[in-house]
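Aim 2 progress update. The chain analyzed this quarter is reproduced below.
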Amino acid sequence: MLAEAIDDISPAVRANAACNDLQGSFTGVFFSEELQDIAAAKAICASCPVLAECRRWIDEVERDGIGRMRIHGMYAGET
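Predicted structure tokens:
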């Protein structure tokens, strides 16, 4: 279900996202509970050229929900 919601993000937004290195290198940073990782994820988001689009997407997901799934991790500079 989350994968389907992530597919709703346009390919152009995903391609330009600062967190997308096509290797999954930042996964641990964006889904960590360590303060230094959270700070690093927020810094990556702060420099992202598609931050506004990402924030709109996560706001829609949180508002509309994805079944019973809860969103975990850092999205659009927010936890």
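The CA atoms of residues 62 and 70 lie 8 Å apart. The longest helix spans residues 51-64. These observations will guide the mutagenesis experiments scheduled for the next reporting period.
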